[in-house]
Design brief:
Length: 266
Amino acid sequence: MNWEDMTAAEFARAVQNTGVCVLAMGVLEKHGEHLPLGTDFLNGHTLATLAAEIEEAVVFPPFYFGQIFEAMCYPGTVALKPTLLFDVLQGVLDEIGRNGFRKIIILSAHGGNKFLVNYLAQCSLAEEKPYALYVYQGLSKKQQEKWQKVCETSVHGHACECETSISLANHAHLVKMENIPAEPTLPLNRTKHLDAGFTGIHFYSNYPNHYVGDAKVATVEKGIALRQLQVDSLAEFIGAVKEDEVVPDLNREFFSRVTDVKNLKA
Ligand SMILES: [Zn+2]
């Protein structure tokens, strides 16, 4: 069920029937020369919508603010300041909670959000909220093996064979296969001497054209198969979150102990 498609009365019933809202986070950024700027939020929202048809949940409208400073050197990127981005995200989560959802799932449809969404989850312990926050972490090892069997290439990550295939399955009219470079793009490894560490320029150091692997071999059939793996995995996670009472119970226990600390007297 998509939040924006329902009437207010239908929405109220959906909150009561499901208790769970899925926020699919994408960004606006370059995806090689062949995929649209909105690839991540378009694919993320489609994934969440399909999973919520299997395991009922409300899906938040397409959301395109995320961590994407590494793409500021290409046209079309929208990168909010760190504190503003965090406040927007926290505000959106709180609004979802204020509307009655006891549980919120964040699905990151953009690789560059991976630290941010886990940090958001950690920050849910900074202050007691009326909702529990869950971050979906993607496919299991077994599902990843199935994923790799569908693919012909092994270097993935951005505008690659997988993402292009899924884009063909979701919105083929926005994919410009004729723009894909003739040669594959492999990592340049320009910060290889720092492999034990991490820097903000890491992705750019490998892929200065914001394109990874070889998308020429992408097909709609592969996209449908890969998307199904993601949909089944996310639907399973939504089901597990709906059943879960451990996290809400632990949150209550935790905050009651936080209150105990506050009440300590000398
Ligand atoms: Zn992407």
